[in-house]
Amino acid sequence: MRERRWESAAGLVFEDILHLGDRLAKLGLKPAVPAKDIIGYIEEWTVEGPDDFDKLDPWATEDVTLVHVRDHWQGDFFLLAGGYHTVYQRHQAVGTYCSISHPWRTAEVLTRHDQRGMLWLGFRHAHSFIRVRLKTTEVITPGESRADHERALWLDERQRAFQAAIQILDLPIDAVRDKDMVALQPIDATVPFFCSWPDAFGPCQFEYNSSDPFEFLVPASKLAATCGSELVTVRNYLTGFSEEALAEFADVAPGARACYRCSVHCPLDEVPEILEAIQPDGRLYATLCEFQTQELLPAGDDASAIVGLVGCRGTYQVEVRLNRAPLPESQMPAWIERLIGLPVTYAPLPPFP
């Protein structure tokens, strides 16, 4: 689900994070205390190779994914994806996952949606998938009404953008209007098909699956080709593979930057040690407190809120995420600043991590 998000400036130290916990507790909330086990999320941790992951051995980790990042890339998507797919076939097993992301563009210039979206071509055990995501110009979460006066425009653009991608991919999917929302429906109801990343106007992403591991190689290449000669960032995601397999993936197209993403379990007061382990540019997210906003704003709309920390390069920020705004838009920054005692700016997460 899409989220509203605000963050403080960088430059906080860990003691500031602990003091924030005390502040939230005085408001009647239940923040994590230093000894409490929490789950953090690490991303963009650049490494020389898989051996670097041993730095996290003192902590339990999950969903470990090695990402090959190619910035300013201009090449043949079909050949790159085919190379990774060939290695995947040699090492596939239950629990392995390989995908490649590449931007795509709508031919039409839109006003509420960016021309650039993202596609993922992926391979899991015994099947392949194509995933398509749209980027909106702003985040209007489910239940928010502040863009209802432009609902017809949002729906029309959403429907046309999805139809453009579906036509290029030649997929049997209908993009329709249903109860004042955009809905996506596969022609064959038995096909594994998933919609996600919803906002106030319907899903922003779909995933279509096939038991044929080769089915989407050519269609995905056609969609990627809508970017023309533009320099793009391409990412390959590798989960569940042996070091031998990872070495083979690295040889497909040498020169990519390797980085890890994963979940990590630790007591809150060990967060600085983890941040030190993923230096210099690894980013760590962790939740300090979850609550319903009506606990503090009984007269406002109820929303689910998370106050969390973001650590990178030895310093910290505070983030506040909500599934919807509980107050009128003009009142939100001031309320969040009173909540955490810090100035904030509106900062949605990037749509294409």
What does this structure look like?
There is one protein chain. The protein is α+β, with helices and mostly antiparallel strands and 353 residues long. The protein folds into 2 domains: 1-65 and 259-353, no CATH class; 75-230, no CATH class. 22% of the residues lie in helices and 37% in strands. It contains 7 helices and 16 strands. Helix 2 packs antiparallel against helix 4 (217-224). The longest helix has 19 residues, at 151-169.
Descriptive tags:
single chain; 353 residues; alpha+beta; 2 domains; 14-stranded antiparallel beta sheet; two-stranded antiparallel sheet; 7 helices; 16 strands; globular
N- to C-terminal distance: 15 Å
Q: Estimate the global geometry from the Cα principal axes.
A: globular
Q: For the largest sheet, list the strands in their spatial order.
A: 9-10-6-5-4-11-3-12-2-13-14-15-1-16
Task: Give the fraction of residues assigned to helices.
Answer: 10-25%
Structural class: alpha+beta
Biggest β-sheet strands, sense, barrel: 14 strands, antiparallel
Share of β-strand residues: 35-45%
Kindly provide the radius of gyration, computed on alpha-carbon positions and rounded to a whole number of angstroms: 22 Å
Number of helices: 7
> Please, what is the average pLDDT?
96
Helices and strands, in order, run as EHEEHEEEHEEEEHEHEHEEEHE
Give the uncertain stretches in residue-range form.
none
